[in-house]
Write a structure and sequence with these properties.
Number of helices: 17
Radius of gyration: 28 Å
Strand content: 5-15%
Structural class: alpha+beta
Order of helices and strands: HHHHHHHEEHEEEEHEHEEEEEHHEHHHHH
Number of strands: 13
Helix content: 25-40%
Distance between the termini: 49 Å
Largest sheet: 6 strands, mixed
Length: 466
Protein backbone atom coordinates (compact mmCIF):
# COMPACT_ATOMS: atom_id res chain seq x y z
CA UNK A 1 0.00 0.00 0.00
CA UNK A 2 1.27 3.49 -0.80
CA UNK A 3 2.39 5.34 2.28
CA UNK A 4 1.66 8.97 3.03
CA UNK A 5 3.61 11.34 5.21
CA UNK A 6 1.64 12.27 8.27
CA UNK A 7 1.55 16.00 8.83
CA UNK A 8 0.33 16.68 12.30
CA UNK A 9 1.17 18.84 15.24
CA UNK A 10 4.92 19.50 15.50
CA UNK A 11 6.61 18.11 18.63
CA UNK A 12 7.25 20.55 21.43
CA UNK A 13 10.69 19.11 22.19
CA UNK A 14 13.38 17.50 20.05
CA UNK A 15 16.09 15.08 21.11
CA UNK A 16 18.66 16.15 18.52
CA UNK A 17 22.39 15.59 18.92
CA UNK A 18 24.50 17.36 16.33
CA UNK A 19 27.41 15.01 17.01
CA UNK A 20 25.37 12.05 15.75
CA UNK A 21 24.72 13.64 12.37
CA UNK A 22 28.34 14.22 11.30
CA UNK A 23 29.71 11.12 9.51
CA UNK A 24 32.65 9.44 11.21
CA UNK A 25 34.85 9.75 8.10
CA UNK A 26 33.91 13.35 7.28
CA UNK A 27 36.93 15.48 6.40
CA UNK A 28 36.11 18.08 9.06
CA UNK A 29 35.89 15.43 11.76
CA UNK A 30 39.38 14.23 10.83
CA UNK A 31 40.74 17.78 10.62
CA UNK A 32 39.26 18.62 14.00
CA UNK A 33 41.60 16.07 15.59
CA UNK A 34 44.61 18.22 14.67
CA UNK A 35 43.35 21.81 15.03
CA UNK A 36 44.07 23.26 18.45
CA UNK A 37 43.17 26.92 18.97
CA UNK A 38 43.59 26.83 22.74
CA UNK A 39 46.33 29.50 22.73
CA UNK A 40 44.57 31.83 20.30
CA UNK A 41 42.77 33.86 22.97
CA UNK A 42 45.98 34.49 24.89
CA UNK A 43 47.69 35.54 21.66
CA UNK A 44 44.94 38.07 20.88
CA UNK A 45 44.31 39.27 24.44
CA UNK A 46 46.43 42.47 24.14
CA UNK A 47 44.31 43.56 21.16
CA UNK A 48 40.95 43.46 22.98
CA UNK A 49 39.54 45.89 25.54
CA UNK A 50 38.86 44.71 29.09
CA UNK A 51 35.49 46.48 29.10
CA UNK A 52 32.49 46.67 26.81
CA UNK A 53 30.34 44.01 25.17
CA UNK A 54 31.91 40.62 24.41
CA UNK A 55 33.00 40.31 20.80
CA UNK A 56 32.54 37.40 18.41
CA UNK A 57 34.87 34.60 19.50
CA UNK A 58 38.00 34.85 17.29
CA UNK A 59 38.31 31.04 17.38
CA UNK A 60 34.90 30.84 15.68
CA UNK A 61 36.06 33.18 12.92
CA UNK A 62 39.23 31.17 12.36
CA UNK A 63 37.28 27.91 12.20
CA UNK A 64 34.86 29.39 9.69
CA UNK A 65 37.73 30.65 7.54
CA UNK A 66 39.36 27.20 7.61
CA UNK A 67 36.06 25.67 6.47
CA UNK A 68 35.93 28.14 3.60
CA UNK A 69 39.50 27.47 2.44
CA UNK A 70 39.23 23.71 2.89
CA UNK A 71 36.17 23.48 0.65
CA UNK A 72 36.89 26.27 -1.82
CA UNK A 73 34.19 28.64 -0.53
CA UNK A 74 35.70 31.91 -1.70
CA UNK A 75 32.94 34.34 -0.73
CA UNK A 76 32.59 35.18 2.96
CA UNK A 77 28.93 36.04 2.45
CA UNK A 78 28.36 32.59 0.98
CA UNK A 79 30.49 31.04 3.74
CA UNK A 80 28.14 32.43 6.38
CA UNK A 81 25.17 30.96 4.48
CA UNK A 82 26.84 27.55 4.19
CA UNK A 83 27.74 27.43 7.88
CA UNK A 84 24.16 28.37 8.70
CA UNK A 85 22.78 25.47 6.63
CA UNK A 86 25.41 22.71 6.86
CA UNK A 87 25.35 20.58 10.01
CA UNK A 88 28.96 19.43 9.64
CA UNK A 89 30.12 23.04 9.32
CA UNK A 90 28.13 24.00 12.42
CA UNK A 91 29.65 21.10 14.35
CA UNK A 92 33.20 22.03 13.35
CA UNK A 93 32.61 25.69 14.27
CA UNK A 94 31.19 24.69 17.69
CA UNK A 95 27.79 26.18 16.84
CA UNK A 96 24.55 24.68 18.07
CA UNK A 97 21.35 24.53 16.02
CA UNK A 98 20.06 27.77 17.52
CA UNK A 99 23.36 29.67 17.61
CA UNK A 100 23.63 32.65 15.29
CA UNK A 101 26.28 32.75 12.58
CA UNK A 102 28.44 35.92 12.56
CA UNK A 103 27.77 38.48 9.85
CA UNK A 104 30.13 38.48 6.88
CA UNK A 105 31.28 42.03 7.68
CA UNK A 106 32.82 40.75 10.92
CA UNK A 107 35.56 39.00 8.94
CA UNK A 108 36.69 42.20 7.23
CA UNK A 109 36.80 44.17 10.48
CA UNK A 110 38.89 41.54 12.23
CA UNK A 111 41.14 40.71 9.26
CA UNK A 112 42.13 44.32 8.64
CA UNK A 113 42.32 45.06 12.35
CA UNK A 114 43.23 42.63 15.12
CA UNK A 115 44.17 39.64 12.98
CA UNK A 116 46.58 41.62 10.81
CA UNK A 117 48.06 43.71 13.62
CA UNK A 118 48.78 40.62 15.72
CA UNK A 119 49.83 38.40 12.77
CA UNK A 120 47.15 35.94 13.86
CA UNK A 121 46.97 33.99 10.61
CA UNK A 122 50.71 33.20 10.76
CA UNK A 123 50.25 32.24 14.40
CA UNK A 124 47.56 29.72 13.40
CA UNK A 125 49.66 28.43 10.51
CA UNK A 126 52.65 27.80 12.78
CA UNK A 127 50.50 26.08 15.41
CA UNK A 128 49.28 23.66 12.74
CA UNK A 129 52.87 23.19 11.59
CA UNK A 130 53.93 22.41 15.17
CA UNK A 131 51.33 19.63 15.17
CA UNK A 132 52.77 18.28 11.90
CA UNK A 133 56.18 18.19 13.59
CA UNK A 134 54.77 16.44 16.64
CA UNK A 135 53.09 13.81 14.45
CA UNK A 136 56.39 13.03 12.68
CA UNK A 137 55.36 14.25 9.24
CA UNK A 138 58.43 16.50 8.86
CA UNK A 139 61.75 14.82 8.12
CA UNK A 140 63.81 18.01 8.30
CA UNK A 141 66.39 16.79 5.75
CA UNK A 142 65.15 17.76 2.29
CA UNK A 143 63.28 20.97 1.47
CA UNK A 144 61.74 21.93 -1.87
CA UNK A 145 61.00 25.46 -3.02
CA UNK A 146 58.82 26.82 -5.79
CA UNK A 147 56.45 29.68 -6.63
CA UNK A 148 53.13 29.87 -8.41
CA UNK A 149 51.48 32.90 -9.98
CA UNK A 150 47.99 33.84 -8.69
CA UNK A 151 45.90 36.51 -10.40
CA UNK A 152 45.28 39.65 -8.37
CA UNK A 153 41.88 41.28 -7.96
CA UNK A 154 42.80 43.99 -10.44
CA UNK A 155 41.31 44.77 -13.83
CA UNK A 156 43.77 44.80 -16.73
CA UNK A 157 42.08 47.95 -18.04
CA UNK A 158 42.65 49.85 -14.80
CA UNK A 159 46.38 50.25 -15.30
CA UNK A 160 48.73 53.03 -16.33
CA UNK A 161 52.44 53.19 -17.19
CA UNK A 162 54.55 53.17 -14.05
CA UNK A 163 56.02 56.60 -14.77
CA UNK A 164 52.50 58.09 -14.98
CA UNK A 165 51.17 56.57 -11.75
CA UNK A 166 50.40 59.17 -9.09
CA UNK A 167 48.02 59.52 -6.15
CA UNK A 168 46.82 62.52 -4.20
CA UNK A 169 48.14 61.75 -0.71
CA UNK A 170 45.99 64.46 0.86
CA UNK A 171 42.75 62.80 -0.22
CA UNK A 172 41.32 59.55 1.13
CA UNK A 173 43.12 56.53 -0.30
CA UNK A 174 42.05 52.91 -0.45
CA UNK A 175 43.83 50.47 1.83
CA UNK A 176 45.90 48.75 -0.93
CA UNK A 177 47.10 52.11 -2.29
CA UNK A 178 47.92 53.39 1.20
CA UNK A 179 49.92 50.24 2.02
CA UNK A 180 51.76 50.50 -1.30
CA UNK A 181 52.77 54.11 -0.70
CA UNK A 182 53.87 53.33 2.86
CA UNK A 183 56.08 50.52 1.53
CA UNK A 184 57.65 52.92 -0.98
CA UNK A 185 58.37 55.46 1.76
CA UNK A 186 59.92 52.78 3.98
CA UNK A 187 62.17 51.40 1.22
CA UNK A 188 65.88 52.07 1.72
CA UNK A 189 66.57 52.49 -2.00
CA UNK A 190 64.59 54.26 -4.67
CA UNK A 191 62.60 51.80 -6.75
CA UNK A 192 62.54 51.94 -10.52
CA UNK A 193 58.98 52.57 -11.76
CA UNK A 194 57.42 49.34 -13.07
CA UNK A 195 56.26 49.00 -16.64
CA UNK A 196 52.58 49.00 -15.71
CA UNK A 197 50.82 49.82 -12.42
CA UNK A 198 47.29 48.98 -11.35
CA UNK A 199 45.38 51.91 -9.84
CA UNK A 200 43.35 49.58 -7.62
CA UNK A 201 46.15 47.26 -6.46
CA UNK A 202 49.50 48.92 -7.21
CA UNK A 203 51.58 46.28 -5.39
CA UNK A 204 50.50 43.61 -7.89
CA UNK A 205 53.02 42.80 -10.63
CA UNK A 206 52.19 43.11 -14.32
CA UNK A 207 53.31 39.75 -15.73
CA UNK A 208 52.88 37.37 -18.63
CA UNK A 209 54.95 34.60 -16.99
CA UNK A 210 52.40 31.76 -17.45
CA UNK A 211 52.05 32.60 -21.14
CA UNK A 212 49.27 34.45 -22.87
CA UNK A 213 48.05 37.99 -22.22
CA UNK A 214 49.68 39.84 -19.33
CA UNK A 215 47.77 40.44 -16.09
CA UNK A 216 48.34 41.68 -12.54
CA UNK A 217 49.41 38.97 -10.13
CA UNK A 218 51.14 37.90 -6.94
CA UNK A 219 53.27 34.82 -6.32
CA UNK A 220 52.72 32.35 -3.52
CA UNK A 221 56.07 30.86 -2.50
CA UNK A 222 56.05 27.44 -0.80
CA UNK A 223 58.84 25.86 1.21
CA UNK A 224 57.92 22.21 1.83
CA UNK A 225 59.46 19.22 3.51
CA UNK A 226 59.82 16.35 1.04
CA UNK A 227 58.95 13.56 3.51
CA UNK A 228 55.19 14.11 3.44
CA UNK A 229 54.80 17.34 1.47
CA UNK A 230 54.07 19.45 4.56
CA UNK A 231 54.27 23.20 3.92
CA UNK A 232 56.93 24.62 6.24
CA UNK A 233 56.51 28.23 5.23
CA UNK A 234 54.68 30.42 2.75
CA UNK A 235 55.48 33.92 1.57
CA UNK A 236 53.58 36.32 -0.69
CA UNK A 237 55.55 38.39 -3.20
CA UNK A 238 54.84 40.31 -6.39
CA UNK A 239 55.02 37.95 -9.38
CA UNK A 240 58.64 38.69 -10.19
CA UNK A 241 61.50 36.19 -10.31
CA UNK A 242 63.88 38.24 -8.15
CA UNK A 243 61.27 38.59 -5.40
CA UNK A 244 60.52 34.87 -5.54
CA UNK A 245 64.18 33.90 -5.19
CA UNK A 246 64.72 36.33 -2.30
CA UNK A 247 61.67 34.88 -0.53
CA UNK A 248 63.54 31.58 -0.28
CA UNK A 249 66.14 33.10 2.01
CA UNK A 250 63.44 34.64 4.18
CA UNK A 251 61.58 31.35 4.57
CA UNK A 252 64.62 29.14 5.21
CA UNK A 253 65.91 31.57 7.85
CA UNK A 254 62.48 31.84 9.49
CA UNK A 255 62.03 28.07 9.73
CA UNK A 256 65.51 27.74 11.21
CA UNK A 257 64.84 30.51 13.73
CA UNK A 258 61.40 29.37 14.90
CA UNK A 259 61.69 25.58 14.65
CA UNK A 260 65.47 25.01 14.64
CA UNK A 261 65.30 23.03 11.39
CA UNK A 262 68.03 23.40 8.79
CA UNK A 263 67.85 21.09 5.75
CA UNK A 264 70.72 19.08 4.33
CA UNK A 265 69.61 19.84 0.77
CA UNK A 266 67.28 22.25 -1.00
CA UNK A 267 65.46 21.37 -4.23
CA UNK A 268 64.42 23.94 -6.79
CA UNK A 269 64.20 24.67 -10.49
CA UNK A 270 66.61 26.69 -12.63
CA UNK A 271 65.24 30.03 -11.38
CA UNK A 272 66.94 29.31 -8.04
CA UNK A 273 70.24 28.36 -9.69
CA UNK A 274 71.73 31.84 -9.86
CA UNK A 275 75.29 32.36 -8.64
CA UNK A 276 74.19 34.52 -5.71
CA UNK A 277 71.58 32.00 -4.56
CA UNK A 278 73.94 29.04 -4.86
CA UNK A 279 76.61 30.96 -2.95
CA UNK A 280 74.13 31.63 -0.16
CA UNK A 281 73.17 27.94 0.03
CA UNK A 282 76.69 26.51 -0.07
CA UNK A 283 78.82 29.12 1.69
CA UNK A 284 76.42 30.63 4.23
CA UNK A 285 73.92 27.86 5.04
CA UNK A 286 75.94 24.70 4.24
CA UNK A 287 72.98 23.33 2.24
CA UNK A 288 73.45 21.04 -0.75
CA UNK A 289 71.94 22.82 -3.79
CA UNK A 290 69.88 20.27 -5.71
CA UNK A 291 69.22 22.96 -8.28
CA UNK A 292 70.14 23.22 -11.98
CA UNK A 293 72.78 25.89 -12.51
CA UNK A 294 71.65 29.03 -14.30
CA UNK A 295 74.43 29.23 -16.89
CA UNK A 296 74.38 31.08 -20.21
CA UNK A 297 78.13 31.10 -20.74
CA UNK A 298 78.32 27.89 -22.77
CA UNK A 299 78.68 28.49 -26.49
CA UNK A 300 76.40 26.90 -29.07
CA UNK A 301 78.32 27.76 -32.27
CA UNK A 302 80.78 24.87 -32.04
CA UNK A 303 83.67 26.98 -30.70
CA UNK A 304 85.56 26.13 -27.53
CA UNK A 305 83.49 26.58 -24.41
CA UNK A 306 84.48 27.32 -20.84
CA UNK A 307 84.56 23.63 -19.98
CA UNK A 308 87.46 23.22 -22.42
CA UNK A 309 89.57 25.47 -20.19
CA UNK A 310 91.14 24.11 -16.98
CA UNK A 311 90.67 26.11 -13.78
CA UNK A 312 93.74 26.45 -11.55
CA UNK A 313 92.43 27.52 -8.16
CA UNK A 314 95.80 28.04 -6.48
CA UNK A 315 97.08 30.29 -9.29
CA UNK A 316 93.65 31.95 -9.74
CA UNK A 317 93.77 31.48 -13.49
CA UNK A 318 92.40 29.42 -16.38
CA UNK A 319 94.57 27.34 -18.71
CA UNK A 320 93.59 27.02 -22.35
CA UNK A 321 93.91 23.69 -24.23
CA UNK A 322 97.39 24.87 -25.33
CA UNK A 323 98.43 25.50 -21.72
CA UNK A 324 98.43 29.31 -21.92
CA UNK A 325 97.09 31.26 -18.89
CA UNK A 326 94.02 33.51 -18.70
CA UNK A 327 94.27 35.95 -15.78
CA UNK A 328 92.01 38.52 -14.13
CA UNK A 329 92.62 41.94 -12.56
CA UNK A 330 90.73 40.75 -9.44
CA UNK A 331 88.15 43.54 -9.66
CA UNK A 332 84.60 42.19 -10.14
CA UNK A 333 82.09 43.90 -12.39
CA UNK A 334 78.76 45.31 -11.24
CA UNK A 335 77.15 41.84 -11.47
CA UNK A 336 79.90 40.18 -9.36
CA UNK A 337 81.74 38.73 -12.34
CA UNK A 338 85.50 38.42 -12.83
CA UNK A 339 86.81 38.62 -16.40
CA UNK A 340 89.80 36.38 -17.23
CA UNK A 341 91.72 37.36 -20.38
CA UNK A 342 94.44 35.67 -22.36
CA UNK A 343 97.44 37.45 -23.84
CA UNK A 344 97.05 38.89 -27.34
CA UNK A 345 100.50 37.55 -28.21
CA UNK A 346 99.61 34.02 -27.05
CA UNK A 347 96.47 33.98 -29.19
CA UNK A 348 97.96 35.58 -32.29
CA UNK A 349 99.90 32.54 -33.43
CA UNK A 350 97.76 29.83 -31.86
CA UNK A 351 96.50 27.09 -34.18
CA UNK A 352 93.20 26.91 -32.25
CA UNK A 353 92.35 30.60 -32.62
CA UNK A 354 89.76 29.97 -35.34
CA UNK A 355 87.86 27.69 -32.94
CA UNK A 356 88.53 29.70 -29.78
CA UNK A 357 88.22 33.42 -30.54
CA UNK A 358 87.76 33.89 -34.31
CA UNK A 359 86.29 37.39 -34.06
CA UNK A 360 88.47 38.88 -31.31
CA UNK A 361 92.18 39.33 -30.71
CA UNK A 362 92.18 37.28 -27.48
CA UNK A 363 89.91 35.03 -25.42
CA UNK A 364 87.85 36.17 -22.42
CA UNK A 365 86.10 33.99 -19.82
CA UNK A 366 83.61 35.34 -17.30
CA UNK A 367 83.69 33.70 -13.86
CA UNK A 368 81.19 34.46 -11.12
CA UNK A 369 82.45 35.36 -7.66
CA UNK A 370 80.40 32.38 -6.40
CA UNK A 371 81.63 30.05 -9.12
CA UNK A 372 82.86 27.50 -6.55
CA UNK A 373 79.28 27.10 -5.32
CA UNK A 374 78.15 26.65 -8.93
CA UNK A 375 80.76 23.91 -9.31
CA UNK A 376 79.31 22.16 -6.25
CA UNK A 377 75.86 22.24 -7.86
CA UNK A 378 77.24 20.86 -11.12
CA UNK A 379 78.94 17.96 -9.31
CA UNK A 380 75.75 17.12 -7.38
CA UNK A 381 73.76 17.04 -10.63
CA UNK A 382 75.45 13.78 -11.59
CA UNK A 383 74.67 11.91 -8.34
CA UNK A 384 71.82 9.43 -7.73
CA UNK A 385 70.42 11.47 -4.81
CA UNK A 386 70.06 14.45 -7.13
CA UNK A 387 67.94 12.32 -9.49
CA UNK A 388 65.72 11.34 -6.56
CA UNK A 389 65.40 14.97 -5.54
CA UNK A 390 64.10 15.94 -8.95
CA UNK A 391 61.21 13.53 -8.46
CA UNK A 392 60.49 14.94 -4.99
CA UNK A 393 60.16 18.43 -6.46
CA UNK A 394 56.86 17.33 -7.98
CA UNK A 395 55.34 17.38 -4.49
CA UNK A 396 55.36 21.16 -4.36
CA UNK A 397 53.89 21.34 -7.87
CA UNK A 398 51.09 19.01 -6.75
CA UNK A 399 50.32 21.39 -3.89
CA UNK A 400 49.93 24.27 -6.33
CA UNK A 401 47.64 22.17 -8.53
CA UNK A 402 45.57 21.30 -5.45
CA UNK A 403 45.54 24.97 -4.41
CA UNK A 404 44.04 26.10 -7.71
CA UNK A 405 41.89 23.12 -8.69
CA UNK A 406 40.44 21.94 -5.36
CA UNK A 407 40.71 25.00 -3.11
CA UNK A 408 39.87 27.26 -6.10
CA UNK A 409 42.49 29.85 -5.25
CA UNK A 410 43.31 30.83 -8.83
CA UNK A 411 42.38 34.47 -8.23
CA UNK A 412 42.69 36.55 -5.08
CA UNK A 413 39.77 38.29 -3.41
CA UNK A 414 41.81 40.55 -1.12
CA UNK A 415 43.95 43.36 -2.47
CA UNK A 416 47.42 44.48 -1.54
CA UNK A 417 50.46 42.47 -0.54
CA UNK A 418 49.09 42.01 2.99
CA UNK A 419 45.82 40.72 1.59
CA UNK A 420 47.68 38.23 -0.59
CA UNK A 421 49.71 37.14 2.45
CA UNK A 422 46.51 36.51 4.43
CA UNK A 423 44.97 34.39 1.69
CA UNK A 424 48.13 32.35 1.10
CA UNK A 425 48.58 31.67 4.84
CA UNK A 426 45.00 30.46 5.21
CA UNK A 427 45.27 28.25 2.13
CA UNK A 428 48.56 26.72 3.33
CA UNK A 429 47.01 26.10 6.77
CA UNK A 430 44.08 24.30 5.15
CA UNK A 431 46.42 22.19 3.02
CA UNK A 432 48.50 21.12 6.02
CA UNK A 433 45.36 20.18 7.94
CA UNK A 434 44.06 18.16 5.01
CA UNK A 435 47.47 16.50 4.69
CA UNK A 436 47.42 15.41 8.35
CA UNK A 437 43.86 14.15 7.97
CA UNK A 438 44.82 12.06 4.93
CA UNK A 439 48.04 10.64 6.40
CA UNK A 440 47.13 10.07 10.04
CA UNK A 441 43.39 9.34 10.16
CA UNK A 442 42.53 6.00 8.48
CA UNK A 443 39.20 5.81 6.65
CA UNK A 444 36.67 3.00 6.73
CA UNK A 445 36.27 0.99 3.51
CA UNK A 446 32.85 -0.22 2.27
CA UNK A 447 33.15 -3.41 4.37
CA UNK A 448 33.73 -1.30 7.50
CA UNK A 449 37.33 -2.32 8.16
CA UNK A 450 40.11 0.24 8.58
CA UNK A 451 42.75 0.64 5.94
CA UNK A 452 46.32 0.18 6.98
CA UNK A 453 48.66 3.12 7.58
CA UNK A 454 50.85 1.99 4.67
CA UNK A 455 47.95 2.43 2.28
CA UNK A 456 46.99 5.79 3.77
CA UNK A 457 50.57 7.02 3.29
CA UNK A 458 50.29 6.57 -0.46
CA UNK A 459 46.84 8.13 -0.78
CA UNK A 460 47.60 11.87 -0.67
CA UNK A 461 49.40 11.65 -4.02
CA UNK A 462 46.25 10.37 -5.72
CA UNK A 463 43.46 11.91 -3.67
CA UNK A 464 41.99 15.36 -3.33
CA UNK A 465 42.14 15.02 0.48
CA UNK A 466 45.59 16.63 0.68
Amino acid sequence: MMGRQEVGQVPLFYAFNLEDHVPANHLLRRIDQFLDLGELHRHLAPHYSHTGRPSVDPALLIRMLIVGYCFGIRSERRLCEEVHLNLAYRWFCRLGLEDAVPDHSTFSKNRHGRFRNSDTLRFVFEKVLERCLAEGLVGGEGFAIDASVIKADANRQRGVPGSDASWDRESSLTRPVREYLEALDAAEEARKPPKNVSLTDPAAQWTAAPGGPAFYAYSTNYLIDTKAGVILDVEATPAHRTNEVNATKVMVDRVEERFEINPTHLIGDTAYGTAEMLGWMVDEKAIEPHVPVWDKAERKDGSLGRTDFRWEAEADEYRCPQGKPLRSTGKPTADDTLIYRSSVYDCAGCELKSRCCPNTTHRKIARQVNESARDVARQLASTPRYARSRRHRKKVEMLFAHLKRILRLDRLRLRGLKGARDEFLLAATAQNLRRMAAWLMPKADPEGSLRSRARVVREPQQSADL
